[in-house]
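Question (not urgent): is this output format expected?
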Amino acid sequence: MRHLTTLHPTPPYNFPLLLDFLTRFAHPTLNVVEEDAYWRVVQSTNGLALLRVTGSGTPEQPQLDVHIAASRGDVDDTELIDGIQHILPTTHNWSGFYDSARVDVGLWGVVAPLLGLPEIRTASVFEALMQTVIEQQISWVTAQRAQRWLVEWAGNTVEYAGRVHYAFPTPAQIAAASVDDLKPLKITFKRMALMIDLAAQVASGALDLERLRDIAPAEAYQQLTAIKGIGHWTAAVTLERAFGYTDWVAYNDVVLQAATNRYLLGGSGRIPPELVAQTFAQYGEHAGIAARYTMFRWVFEQYPPRGDHT
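Got this back:
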């Protein structure tokens, strides 16, 4: 195992809390927690590398040590460092949101236990979009199971110490699939066809999703929602996962509807999307991130940790 780099994320950055959060996933696919470390396969131009990340320090003085556990092909260290810094957003600064939340008793009750929790990002916009399409209108656990099947089906792997770790499928792999091939995802035929069509456009160069990082968030949102089959929820969640954008509230998310009612309104059960939007509108520019932390709180309370997920 070779030391790649040491990172010093923008504080507050609570790496142990992130590991705890990831153990709440019943079917981990790309982001694996094992032996108090975070494991992730990162793509380089000509290869794949399995990175092991461990944390030290405190949320106010965080330090992440990154090692290359194993690799396939010719990997470039600079690309790997850029990749893991993006996935574990080490430069994102949410201190303004925390300062704002502190003066709101209701919101601070949600946020305070999660102070410094970073949100994992996807390695690419394509990865975020495919995952989000899978998650449309199915439960979180069911979606995780489907996503895990997809990465195992594609077979982009790096092995270490007898364990297989996966990278996300390439656009070409999904583009080459048929609807019958993807049936084990157990999602609608319409969504499988959408995944294949989008992957084909990306693979051919007709659709350049990565270019969205070079334009304003509002324009990126408009371009995504202009694609047939991609509505508000899919576009908002895709951009959040890919870039950390929090410009929108995914008000039509059924979990957010229940979590908003529980933590901010003191009720039980789901509330209408309009009431979700109205509730978070009071937080102004921080509405999107307030909604995300409300969702995080729900995950911690509703899904028990699963150990190492072996």
